[in-house]
Amino acid sequence: MKVFQSSAAQMRLVGGQLSLDFVNTVDGRSSYSPRKNPAAASNVLRDKLRNYSDLVGWGQHAGIITALEARSLIREGKRKAAEAAKVFERAIALREALYRIFKARLTDGTPRSVDLDTVNDELQRARSHKRLTRAGDGFTWEWIGPATALDRMLWSIAHSGAEYLTAGDLSRLRECGGEECGWLFEDTSKNRSRQWCHMQDCGNLEKVRRFRARQRRGSNK
Ligand SMILES: [Zn+2]
To answer: For the whole model, what pTM was predicted?
Structure first.
């Protein structure tokens, strides 16, 4: 059972990669230009993560922590509010660094080394909690550490982001074509033709927009 009602805990997970779903906790990136209008960020960007509880809620929603773990993290976060606030800051820094790295890949740009440093810092913390373990006939990684380690969601996110960057097919990385969206996803369609984060959201909005534009042109004749 989900214990959270925040929008982060209810959003669509359509990125195809944990790190992309995490980056997608912000809406409106495609209509926001930090260079052109930095002051407009609060009007244009809609961040689903507002505090540590939202981060925990998203972590449970994304399946990287259990409901039981989420409940104990919330309790611990309330007990150690200053520490939880720092973990939240780290989470946002990691998210934005990942976003800029992915975006650089999409635009054939060069990722900034400061962003790689941020991911590497989190990766290093994550590695100290990673252990090889048996799983059936094979092996798998598991995360070890106290259930109340406030940053345990970040281990999975940093690890997943690095795995995707090193071993994923980045030629399939896409940005949603929705006018006010900016979500990223992995296009796993056979003919590499996926345009939208989700057809029912951005795909339909675009259809309506095109229809209205056609109607306007028609009525101006
Ligand atoms: Zn979209």
So the answer is: 0.90
